[in-house]
Amino acid sequence: MSCGGRRAEPIRELVRLCARKPTPEELLSARQEQQRVDVVLSVIDPRHADLLLLRSHGLSYGELASTLEINPGSVGTFLGRAQQAFRKEYIKRYEKR
User: Fold this and answer.
1) Any domain includes 57
2) What is the rounded average pLDDT for all residues in the chain?
3) Can you give the pTM of this predicted structure?
4) CA nearest to 53, candidates 79, 30, 32
5) What is the domain extent for residue 84?
6) What is the pLDDT of residues 16-61, one digit of tens each?
7) Are 86 and 40 in contact (CB under 8 A)?
8) In this structure, is residue 7 part of a structural domain?
9) Domain for residue 12, yes or no?
10) Is 65:75 a contact under the CB 8 Å cutoff?
């Protein structure tokens, strides 16, 4: 079996796309989106914001429970509520009408 056959081609294409430099428009769009996220995180409940930020940094449910001093069995529920609060506020502020 050789390395780099047909199955490797989609991977090479993905690497090529990810390796290219973003355009100025893409950079601006990403910056604007980050600003929107920052605004929404600043207005939702601080515990929800903390939970979402920590989860986005890869913390496990156990680590979230320990860090935020919540019951490990409740992390999923709290995370769902945090995501729902974020989504609701984001839509309220930024969805096109």
Assistant:
1) yes
2) 88
3) 0.74
4) 79
5) 29-94
6) 777 778 888 988 998 999 999 999 999 999 999 999 999 999 999 9
7) yes
8) no
9) no
10) yes
